[in-house]
């Protein structure tokens, strides 16, 4: 079926089937004559083909499918979302510095470590660390304590810091004795004695330096 109607100064032809224009059927009956009459009108002019069904068409964007009111609503919604994000990111006052946390004192560290060692029952570890610290301080004071006995170390240190040699030797012997682990009270007392000796050593070092 072929339908024709005039639109303005032109004419539109609509065919229900386009197979008669194919190469296989153009020679049947009067298909060629009909095609020539359509393509070559007597008054001349241009011929345009609707190639939509052949796939020659610009793709339709989803935005074009929406009506005008829906497009306006979408634009307003996008503007509202952008304004919301901007309001959350805007600053309404001067920036405040982050609160400064005071540094932890060495006493807090010592207390925390002592609690951990006490819970673990690691008195031997504390005693060994105390003895190692004592030997390091005394070695720095005397110029070297490698291979020396506790008595020799104590004698050299006593001449430099003024602490009796017997007191230094007893402290070294007690902290080196891992066969008799002291109780908490005695361990604290040993730590105090070691701290007192360390201060005397520092004083002697500054004085001689």
Automatic annotation (TrEMBL):
Domain of life: Bacteria
Protein name: DUF4350 domain-containing protein
Taxonomic lineage: Bacteria, Bacillati, Bacillota, Clostridia, Eubacteriales
């Amino acid at each position: 079926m072929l339908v024709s109607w005039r639109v303005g100064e032109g004419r539109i032809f609509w065919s229900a089937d386009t197979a008669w224009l194919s190469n296989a059927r153009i020679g049947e009956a009067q298909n060629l004559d009909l095609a020539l009459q359509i393509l070559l009108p007597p008054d001349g002019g241009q011929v345009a083909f609707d190639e939509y069904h052949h796939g020659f068409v610009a793709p339709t964007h989803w935005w074009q499918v929406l009506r005008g009111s829906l497009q306006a609503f979408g634009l307003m919604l996008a503007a509202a979302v952008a304004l919301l994000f901007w309001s959350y990111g805007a600053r309404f006052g001067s920036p405040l510095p982050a609160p400064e946390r005071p540094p932890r004192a060495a006493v807090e560290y010592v207390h925390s470590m002592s609690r951990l060692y006490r819970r673990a029952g690691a008195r031997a570890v504390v005693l060994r660390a105390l003895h190692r610290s004592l030997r390091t301080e005394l070695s720095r004071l005397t110029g070297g304590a490698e291979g020396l006995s506790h008595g020799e170390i104590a004698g050299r240190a006593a001449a430099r810091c003024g602490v009796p040699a017997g007191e230094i030797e007893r402290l070294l012997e007690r902290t080196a004795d891992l066969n008799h682990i002291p109780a908490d009270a005695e361990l604290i007392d040993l730590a105090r004695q070691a701290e007192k000796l360390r201060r005397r050593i520092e004083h002697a070092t500054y004085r001689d330096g």
